[in-house]
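ok trying again, last paste got cut off:
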Amino acid sequence: MDWTSGSLGPPGFDTGWCRLDLYLLHGQGIADRFLDAYETASGSVLPDPVLWDLWAVARSHESVETWVPNYHDLGRTDLTATELRSRHTSWTERLLSASPT
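nice, full thing came through this time. structure:
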């Protein structure tokens, strides 16, 4: 079950995690399309999306390789631990280069 720690909180928490998953699975274009669709559906702009994305990558940095079975269950058997680490690092680098200084 994925709702063991469900609670009311800032929408950035969920959008950051979702964008990370989408980036790992399908790349930045899909992650960006999700954010656009989310903002359109909610009728508001998510404040500081890069900071929420960075929060998600920081929280997943040590464990992203353990997500392989979850992605294999989705049919993404091409995503190995090495590939997930590579994609995670790429997303992190993109976010850091886009964050305000």
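cool. Residues 61 and 89 are 9 Å apart (CA to CA). The mean pLDDT is 92.
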